[in-house]
Amino acid sequence: AEGGNELDLSKELTITEHMYTLEELADKLHTNIDSGITDTEAQIRHERDGPNAFSPPKLTPAWVLYLKEMTTGFAIIIWLASIASFICYGIDLVPQYYYLGIVLALVVLITGTYSYSQQASSSKIFESFKNMVPQQTAVIRGGERKDVPADKLVIGDLVYVKAGDRVPADIRVIRCEAMKVDNSSLTGESDPLLRNPEVGHPNALETKNLAFFSTNCVDGSGYGIVISIGDHTVMGKIAKLVTGIAREKTPIAIEISRFTKIITCIAIGNGVVFFAICMGFGLTFFDALIFMIGIIVGNIPEGLLPALTVALTLTAKRMASKNCLVKYLEAVETLGSTSVICSDKTGTLTQNRMTVEHLYFGSQIYRVSHVKEEVDQDMADVQEAYEAYARCCRLCSRTEWIDNNPDVMKRAAAGDASETAILRFMESVSDGPVMDFRKKYPKVAERPFSSVTKYQFSVHRNSTPDPSLNNHFILVMKGAPERIIKLCSTIIIASGESVPMTDAFVDQFENAYRELGSMGERVLAFCDTELTQFPEDYKFDLDNDQSFELDNFRFLGLVALIDPPRASVPDAVAKCRTAGIKVIMVTGDHPITAQAIAKMVGIFTVSHRRSTRISMPTVDAVGRGTSASIVVPGDELAAMTEDELRDILRDYREIVFARTSPQQKLRIVENCQYLGQIVAVTGDGVNDSPALKKANIGVAMGIT
């Protein structure tokens, strides 16, 4: 029955609301996309569907947990030995039997109490889910906007979400302005994702018109219709998945159970044999019984339980000194038995912090650090072009600092991950603070990023205008390279001159774009122009009237960003390989990005044997071998049978699963265990929770 329950829980998410038109959605949910539902209707739905909260799981009473620690397999034998000693004392009145009975009972009590104290904190997973519910949320009911408790939301409510808010339920976005959400805790994708109301991808986790409960809105704002609440949200289903998974028995528990059975058989067998011999020699029944009990007790290694507890405790304390907290003592031994590690990427193998990796301008790619002296040295020969490029990087951004941490890489910023990465880079390598530089070029108008245009731009007052050119304003733009290049008629070269765009320059740009993209980096393009048709006192109103054409820009260059690997990861992966442990990356990120990170950290040690998508008809016959590597996208994984998945896990030594859902991560772990592997799962997001609990050992990263 338990296995059937887990199979049901492992089914993929079935959400269809993102495929409806707005009219169909309003009709299905009996709501209005402009005024929402009425307070009366909300009350009726609240009584029908219940609160927007998770159902609490059944908690095991503390006394039951304590009793379990006192009645493990080996502890039962010692309890029986203690009882037998007291029986002997009652028959023969020898004090040694009395003392032995007390000592054996104390051994079980002390070791059991200590093990229980290690687990007294119990599982806090569900408590962490409860903390995700925002206290108040903005909702439109009957055409009026009001703040209501998040647990009072009902299906069909029209909610408003802005930058800095946590999404209060699963919502279908119906209108928005540059709205970006951070889905990293749910999908593992580190870069904020733009939302728009259009019907798009059939996969609910891939579509852009849904925002999920507990994810954060990091930029822009939007309105959405609530389509799921409480246990029926994606996060609620993950919570149910986690609480419905039974904890795996550890290898040491299995071995102790087996050892207990063997010792019991030997001890009782020897006792019975000696009882028969004593009776044959004519001893009384009680004397023979005392001999039998003594033989049974003597065959039981009473010191094993405390010795095992002490050994595991000492190891746990050593691990704690290295900031690794052990929840269950038996997990220490399990960690040493691990044969497969299924690791998340974002925040585990990588830093979960977008970082500028490469720059491209003047027809050359530069790999850059965040050290000013090194960048100044690299840019010495292209200083004029770099200054124009850097000006655009610093101005074309909505991100600002929100604290004054002297360590720029740890300084908090308000804005999306890509803009924050560019801001950190420019702050690190510029002569002065970026905010001071922006004051020299005050922003007078801007157009946020749009999924339709795939660019954003802002207009700034020129601090050094040339009266003869009437260039009182400059426009800076960044966006998707393929869009930006089409708006440009000139390009800046290494000397800082602007020259007409030629086919040769376009070919160089496309080669650079392709090369940076193949490394799994996110690439943005920059361009600028001077607005010479406006007087100095002109007031821009981009919302109502854009009084200029977006063309004839000067192409400045590209910036490539990536969530870089943690410095210690490549060495750790190499040590795992040396120890015979197979490391599998399981991530929700894009296959190309996942493949690039896998190469950086050493999970892939050979050139990839095929494309990032599996050719299903040939997967059984082609490229298999001890050195084969493969990237399996989530949509391919969803179409695989269990046997096909097990074939891949068995035959490929280097594996990356990309674009995976929490259910798919759980499925991968289950199939590794089916193949007889001891599986460790490392992760730091809610999307890792089911796999973390199902694994033989779960390693939650970054928990403090």
UniProtKB/TrEMBL annotation:
<dbReference type="GO" id="GO:0006883">
    <property type="term" value="P:intracellular sodium ion homeostasis"/>
</dbReference>
<dbReference type="GO" id="GO:0030007">
    <property type="term" value="P:intracellular potassium ion homeostasis"/>
</dbReference>
<dbReference type="InterPro" id="IPR001757">
    <property type="entry name" value="P_typ_ATPase"/>
</dbReference>
<feature type="transmembrane region" description="Helical">
    <location>
        <begin position="97"/>
        <end position="116"/>
    </location>
</feature>
<dbReference type="InterPro" id="IPR036412">
    <property type="entry name" value="HAD-like_sf"/>
</dbReference>
<feature type="transmembrane region" description="Helical">
    <location>
        <begin position="289"/>
        <end position="312"/>
    </location>
</feature>
<keyword id="KW-0915">Sodium</keyword>
<dbReference type="InterPro" id="IPR008250">
    <property type="entry name" value="ATPase_P-typ_transduc_dom_A_sf"/>
</dbReference>
<dbReference type="InterPro" id="IPR004014">
    <property type="entry name" value="ATPase_P-typ_cation-transptr_N"/>
</dbReference>
<dbReference type="GO" id="GO:0005391">
    <property type="term" value="F:P-type sodium:potassium-exchanging transporter activity"/>
</dbReference>
<keyword id="KW-0740">Sodium/potassium transport</keyword>
<dbReference type="GO" id="GO:1990573">
    <property type="term" value="P:potassium ion import across plasma membrane"/>
</dbReference>
<keyword id="KW-0630">Potassium</keyword>
<keyword id="KW-1133">Transmembrane helix</keyword>
<feature type="domain" description="Cation-transporting P-type ATPase N-terminal">
    <location>
        <begin position="16"/>
        <end position="90"/>
    </location>
</feature>
<comment type="function">
    <text>This is the catalytic component of the active enzyme, which catalyzes the hydrolysis of ATP coupled with the exchange of sodium and potassium ions across the plasma membrane. This action creates the electrochemical gradient of sodium and potassium ions, providing the energy for active transport of various nutrients.</text>
</comment>
<dbReference type="GO" id="GO:0005886">
    <property type="term" value="C:plasma membrane"/>
</dbReference>
<dbReference type="Pfam" id="PF13246">
    <property type="entry name" value="Cation_ATPase"/>
</dbReference>
<dbReference type="InterPro" id="IPR044492">
    <property type="entry name" value="P_typ_ATPase_HD_dom"/>
</dbReference>
<dbReference type="InterPro" id="IPR059000">
    <property type="entry name" value="ATPase_P-type_domA"/>
</dbReference>
<dbReference type="GO" id="GO:0036376">
    <property type="term" value="P:sodium ion export across plasma membrane"/>
</dbReference>
<dbReference type="InterPro" id="IPR018303">
    <property type="entry name" value="ATPase_P-typ_P_site"/>
</dbReference>
<dbReference type="InterPro" id="IPR050510">
    <property type="entry name" value="Cation_transp_ATPase_P-type"/>
</dbReference>
<keyword id="KW-0406">Ion transport</keyword>
<keyword id="KW-1278">Translocase</keyword>
<keyword id="KW-0813">Transport</keyword>
<dbReference type="GO" id="GO:1902600">
    <property type="term" value="P:proton transmembrane transport"/>
</dbReference>
<dbReference type="Pfam" id="PF00122">
    <property type="entry name" value="E1-E2_ATPase"/>
</dbReference>
<protein>
    <recommendedName>
        <fullName>Na(+)/K(+)-exchanging ATPase</fullName>
        <ecNumber>7.2.2.13</ecNumber>
    </recommendedName>
</protein>
<keyword id="KW-0547">Nucleotide-binding</keyword>
<dbReference type="GO" id="GO:0016887">
    <property type="term" value="F:ATP hydrolysis activity"/>
</dbReference>
<feature type="transmembrane region" description="Helical">
    <location>
        <begin position="73"/>
        <end position="91"/>
    </location>
</feature>
<dbReference type="InterPro" id="IPR023298">
    <property type="entry name" value="ATPase_P-typ_TM_dom_sf"/>
</dbReference>
<dbReference type="InterPro" id="IPR023299">
    <property type="entry name" value="ATPase_P-typ_cyto_dom_N"/>
</dbReference>
<keyword id="KW-1003">Cell membrane</keyword>
<keyword id="KW-0739">Sodium transport</keyword>
<dbReference type="GO" id="GO:0005524">
    <property type="term" value="F:ATP binding"/>
</dbReference>
<dbReference type="InterPro" id="IPR023214">
    <property type="entry name" value="HAD_sf"/>
</dbReference>
<keyword id="KW-0633">Potassium transport</keyword>
<feature type="transmembrane region" description="Helical">
    <location>
        <begin position="262"/>
        <end position="283"/>
    </location>
</feature>
<comment type="subunit">
    <text>The sodium/potassium-transporting ATPase is composed of a catalytic alpha subunit, an auxiliary non-catalytic beta subunit and an additional regulatory subunit.</text>
</comment>
<dbReference type="Pfam" id="PF00690">
    <property type="entry name" value="Cation_ATPase_N"/>
</dbReference>
